[in-house]
């Protein structure tokens, strides 16, 4: 759970207040995103906050963080109904259709409007589930991402962002294939979980024949107002987020001569599902907890003294001559990553139905895993016991630094005694869409 440098902070008020087939939807088809003759319901036009879909950047990144989130990854369909492999040109056309459908639906939903009928549906079936009828959008945002494999699948390898490569395996990872990777990514955030559920069903209903769901996860935050949110260890999470303006721009938004021109104003997302051993954490001493993190749980202040936003002092020692912030604490290892954290807690409690798990006989031989692993008994059965922790989301301009720090954490982080990384993915988040264009239109320039 990397915590970036304390040089600058995105304030809570600014961070928490700043893709069935339709005819003619090929590479040259027209798209009228957001054209809807039905007016938005009154609840979406009054005092209820509505986040804009169009803009330089996609919503849901620098947007003030909402209380709930739904994350999902999809893969493009590789074969047709007869089981024959689709040619790259058809996969690319299907991708464009999906992004048209998804972009159009997302814009309408974020504005508080109906997403419209499904592209293909049974005669007489309702166009919408109705579960959000009468509900305001509640700051709903829908954010889309593209995985490393996608660019090969659609024949656009030359347009893949420079740093978009699968994350390497880290020595302490216990990754579940069921929670990792993906060619397409969807992040849905908002302040009403029912509106979020409705948005996900709306997007998934537009995917059959074009893409299939790979994994999904749900998260939440407590009500903290302007204060930094707390994770399920009770510690504040996101203290060192960059301030709006130059610090945020430099840390998050991609661009420059090394990146493809279409990706300017986009960003990278590193997604990690981090499982927490809460029973062990809750029976550890306060000193053990604080020294594992490098901060005080109650105030968020660094152990070197001061308040939550006091600069870190790694040279300050205690009466025993040892640094007050241990060199192997989480904070000491991850302080230099420029990124915007937008993480959420998850708590699936005790899972009684066995779900896909890693080959744990193989895992026993991996570096960092032994029969004395404090999480071995919990994780050995996969996600069929106590599954709770953090859905870590880091938006950053260049994931190279994150990879380097993650290797350092795998080797020495005290927090490893209480956590395991069980899911992992990386995505390129395209820049925002212009009116009348879908979010991946720049990948398919007009002839």
Automatic annotation (TrEMBL):
Its cofactor is heme b. Residues 282-292 have a biased composition (Polar residues). PROSITE patterns: DYP_PEROXIDASE, TAT. Residues 58-220 form the Dyp-type peroxidase N-terminal domain. Residues 37-57, 282-321, 357-381 are annotated as: Disordered. Residues 228-433 form the Dyp-type peroxidase C-terminal domain. It is an enzyme of class 1 (oxidoreductase). It comes from the Bacteria. Residues 37-49 have a biased composition (Low complexity). Keywords: Heme, Iron, Metal-binding, Oxidoreductase, Peroxidase, Signal. Residues 1-32 form the signal peptide. GO terms for cellular component: cytosol. It holds the Pfam family Dyp_perox_N. Its EC number is 1.11.1.-, 1.11.1.19. InterPro entries: Dimeric_a/b-barrel, Dyp_perox_C, Dyp_perox_N, Dyp_peroxidase, TAT_signal. One of its GO terms (molecular function) is peroxidase activity. SUPFAM superfamilies: Dimeric alpha+beta barrel. Belongs to the DyP-type peroxidase family. This is Dye decolorizing peroxidase/deferrochelatase/peroxidase EfeB. It comes from Nonomuraea thailandensis.
